[in-house]
What does this fold into?
Amino acid sequence: MIEHNSTEDQVYFAYFAPYSMERHADLIAFAQTSERCQVETLGLTLDGQTLDCLCFGEPGASRKTVWMVARQHPGEAMAEWWMEAMVNRLVDHSDPVVNALLDKAVIYLVPNMNPDGSRRGHLRTNAVGSNLNREWDNPSLDKSPEVLCVLDKITRTGLDFGLDVHGDEALAYNFIAGTEGIPGWNRERQQQLELFKMTLANLNPDFQVEQGYPANTAGNANMSYCSSSLAECFGALVMTLEMPFKDATATPDIVQGWSPERCGRLAHSCLDALHLCWDQVIK
Ligand SMILES: [Zn+2]
It folds into this structure.
């Protein structure tokens, strides 16, 4: 329950800080001013909006390929706050971790996988009611052109590491879900997953490894998920990052709760974790 005595004529309430499509347009325009970023329109959505992709670094035969996508579920605005911080860091030429990563990798970002759902105010679906994170095994122009055009680009670039960024309404924790249960799961993949999660937990106390979704048993992964589909197809470490809506249980902030600023710190920690784990998780 919310009790509030307003001194204004209009008041807005949100479950989490909104991330508007106007702010999204500003983010893309800002990224475009960086000489190390190329903006590419991967296609159009059913409502005729652009599906924007940011490419950092110089593609080349010797470079590995990192993909990070966010906001398949448009109500999970924390995922795009995470992306904004990622963009702000990747454009920084004075950042030694970014420079080291971009020496050996190209980093592709899709800051908003679901512009139609975002503009329409949907929680989990696109313009025709598709849950995009159930479309990766069989995307279509009719139901999920967003997934179709991103997957087409990934197929052309390849993928050596992937992160799909979300928010979870129920669990008040930051956690990572792996792709246990896909046909190609093995001990090495398990070790890569555990190393990345432990490194991230050591870097950032807002992230933890005790709470999260139960891992799928062998052969029981849902292959329509982004992470499962890409991990199986490319033989790479691909994970789903979940952030809370209200707060992180172990590290509460009684004034702000989970906030855009803390999403940003977590994004930066994810980049640091990738840097630290690089030799073990990139094959
Ligand atoms: Zn989600």
Summary: The pocket of zinc ion is lined by residues 73, 76, 166 (CB under 6 Å). DSSP finds eight helices and seven strands in the chain. The first helix runs from residue 21 to 32.
